[in-house]
Structures are given as C-alpha cells and as structure tokens.
Amino acid sequence: MDIQAYYKDVAAWMTSETTWEGFGQSVLRIALIIIIGQVIIWTANKTIDRVVLNRSESRMVLQTRRMTTVGKLVKNMISYAGYFIIGMLVLDEFGVQLAPLLAGAGVIGLAIGFGAQSLVKDIITGFFIIFEDQFAVGDVIQTGNFKGTVEVIGLRATRILSWTGEVHIIPNGMINEVTNFSMHNSIAFIDVSIGYEEDAEKAIVIIRRELERFENDNLVKPPEVLGIQTMLSTEVKVRITAECLPNTQAVVARALNAYIKKVLDGHGIDIPYPRMVTYHRNERGGDPNGA
C-alpha cells in the first residue's frame, strides 16, 4: 500500500465539504436527541410530581407515603428508560447497527435471568415492598430474628439498624413476614402492684386523679386506669394503659412507672414487698413448732 497515497486520501476526506457537512448534521442531530430526551424526562418527572401531589392532598398519611415512594420509583424507571433510548439513538448516529446489539443484549439478559434467579426474586419482592408500602425508611420493623430501624430500602436488599448498633443487610427475597411498629399508635401498659393491707379502691381513685396531671410529649390520649387486673397471694395488680406515638410505648411506660411510684409514696400507699419470717428453734433442737 502506498503510504503517500493513503495520506492524500485522508487529507482529501478531511478537507471535503461533504465530510464536514455530514459531521455537522450528525452533531446537530445528537444535540437535538439529547436535548429533546432531557426535556421529555423532565416533563414526565414534573407530571408525576403533580399527580402524586394532587392525590396525596386527598389521601391519608400512610397512603400519601406510598404515593410518594411509588412516584420516586416510577421517575427512576422513566429516567433509566429515557437515557437508554437516548444512548441507542446516539449510537445509531455513529453508524452502530442497533439490531444485533439489541439482540445480543436480549440474549445476555435472558442468560442472566436464568443464572441469577435469586436476584430477580429480590428485585421483584423489593418492588412490591415499595409499591404496597409495607414499610418505609425510618420505620421500626421486625422480620425473622432481625428488629430495628429501616435505613435503606433498595430493589435488591433492605438495611436495618438495630438499637444496639448492628446493621443487618437482608435480601428482599428473604423477607417473608414483616411486623411494622411504626404505622399506628402504640399502647403502653403497666401493672401497679398494691399490697393487701392497702385499700385498692382508694388507691385506684388516687392514681386516676393524679394521672390527669401526667404529661409526656409522646402521649396521644391521657392514661386510663382499667382497674384490678389480677389478684395474687400477697398483692393486687392495677392495670394502666396509655395510647402513645408509634414505637414509644417503652419510653412512656418507664415515665409512668416513675410517676406512679412518686404518687404512691406521696399518699403513703405501700407496694408489696417480700417479708422475712424468722424461725426459732426450741431448747431441745426440735422444729419451730416444738415437735
């Protein structure tokens, strides 16, 4: 091959008006494809935001959260699909044959689908977790032996932070049953023990009156004294309940225990305590009954 002739051909191609006209048209078409694609994606996202906002205003809080989550998921799917189409159109402008490329991608996707069935199961389960609003970021849930606060919900895995600091990463396909402690108000209940020596009815009246002054930021309704719950050999138990914000029943129960202890002490009402019985042996060393 004549190198000098080759260089002449390249120079002629570089200086040809047809080459630069075609190049300019390709650049213009690519720019238009990117701009129009971005405008379509932006318009679709704004439309979804508007639809979610309009429907959320007429729905309950839990349904609003689901609409927001699903809206974000749909926006991500539209963005991915839009960028994929833009990429294909740009490759077409560079002369890349799309039919073999798409066919190869389909075969590869099919092979990956058969080889990674657990991954597909995780993704499908993750989609339905988000779509059905089974739980959201910030909720306290329990699945299997894992309990904690949801940090991340992905299409493949969910990350849970336990109250002792451990982070549990659970594939969505393994989440079969979920207990959500954050969707509705919780009930704090305590049993107050009162000795048989005390007047139980009087104690109930005092506790009920003093609980009207009890305040806590987590309370939804004032505490309620239900009455005597059980009668044991040395005590009676009075049950008290209080409706509070989701997953705050332990905090409210501790505060109620401390408050009621002060109330009982202030009114001289004793709680039952273990009694020590002392036995005296007789002079002959027999049993306490003198046998």
TrEMBL record:
Domain Mechanosensitive ion channel transmembrane helices 2/3: 76-117
UniProt-listed Pfam families: MS_channel_1st, MS_channel_2nd, MS_channel_3rd
Gene3D superfamilies, per database record: 1.10.287.1260, 2.30.30.60, 3.30.70.100
Domain Mechanosensitive ion channel MscS C-terminal: 190-271
Topology class, membrane: Multi-pass membrane protein
Subcellular compartments: Cell membrane
Major subcellular location class: membrane
Protein name per its UniProtKB record: Mechanosensitive ion channel protein MscS
Organism: Paenibacillus glycanilyticus
Source lineage: Bacteria, Bacillati, Bacillota, Bacilli, Bacillales
